[in-house]
Design a protein that fits this description.
By secondary structure, the chain is α/β, with parallel strands linked by helices. The chain has twelve helices and twelve strands. The structure holds zinc ion (ZN). The site of zinc ion has 6 residues, from loops. It is an enzyme of class 2 (transferase).
């Protein structure tokens, strides 16, 4: 059970939070239309949003976005928070993978894009997200934690046009730790388990511990079957980080200007970071507390 202190009392204004129907219609309108320019898109969003109903109940769960460079552990923290808060964790990377392994309408198109190493277009991402949100709605879920989206200013603008984002958490880890962490990743070739063989122990000038991340060692039956992802090389990881920084900076600025960005420097691995993250979010993990007290 989670206690939400800071955000429970401060519901977002209603003007943009139109009915779920409008919401999906907007995603849909964007994803399936042949809008030729940003201006067209904006006018479509504006005309649609003017029909939103301010009288609709505000009773909904958090709508958060998680930002963070590849390898920072964004998925792990987003997933933990989503179980704590009872909202779906929607990772666009997962949506793409699920669609690829399905026989869905976009699977073959996606397979081609991915095999060519191209970025999946906004249109496809919106289509997948809209499908996922409809599925959530059918299950009676509300709110979400988005992971891997928005990735560009354009996506952030579209998202802003269709719903309110309450908070954007930007997870950060210093580059040397990030690099070491990415290079230490191993996958079990048999069960697909993810591990990390690197122990990060960065000390300051006086030799005092500054950042510690324990390795995540595999159980004995996986240990002999570990493989490294072919793209986890120093050059590839550095290039990935460079590209991430370049594209994420404007998205961070976008939310910073709106006062929605929460910068969070990870102080270490999950045991060090999780309680501090909850503190920063003004959340309490009662289950954790109770089990710790028992
Ligand atoms: Zn295994």
């Amino acid at each position: 059970m989670a206690v939400l202190n800071r955000f429970a009392g401060a519901r977002a204004p209603a003007n943009f939070y139109s009915s779920m129907f409008n919401y999906y219609a907007l995603w849909k309108a964007f994803s399936s239309s042949s809008l030729s320019s940003e201006v067209d898109l904006k006018s479509t969003l504006l005309s649609r949003s003017s029909s939103s109903r301010p009288d609709l109940p505000m009773d909904r769960n958090v709508q958060w976005v998680f930002l963070g460079c590849p390898g920072v552990g964004k998925g792990t923290y987003a997933s933990r928070l989503s179980s704590l808060l009872g909202v779906p964790h929607i990772a666009t990377g997962d949506l793409v993978r699920e669609e690829l392994s399905s026989s869905g309408p976009l699977a073959s198109q996606l397979a081609e894009i991915v095999s060519q190493g191209k970025l999946v277009s906004d249109e496809i991402i919106f289509d997948l997200l809209s499908k996922r949100l409809r599925a959530s709605e059918a299950k009676g879920e509300s709110g979400f934690i988005l992971d891997g989206f928005p990735r560009t200013i354009r996506q952030a603008e579209i998202l802003e046009g269709v719903t309110d984002i309450d908070l954007v958490v930007n997870l950060k880890l210093r580059e040397e730790a990030l690099l070491a962490k990415c290079l230490g990743r191993r996958i079990c070739s048999e069960c697909g388990g993810n591990y990390n063989i690197t122990c990060i122990d960065i000390k300051d000038k006086e030799g005092r511990p500054e950042l510690y991340m324990a390795p995540l060692l595999p159980p004995p039956n996986c240990a002999s079957k570990l493989i490294t992802r072919s793209d986890d090389t120093e050059a590839v990881v550095k290039e990935r980080l460079r590209i991430y920084k370049e594209t994420s900076q404007p998205v961070e600025d976008f939310y910073r200007k709106r006062g929605k960005l929460l910068e969070f420097d990870l102080p270490g691995g999950i045991p060090e970071s999780w309680p501090k993250l909850l503190q920063a979010l003004n959340l309490e993990d009662l289950n954790h507390k109770q089990s710790a007290a028992a």
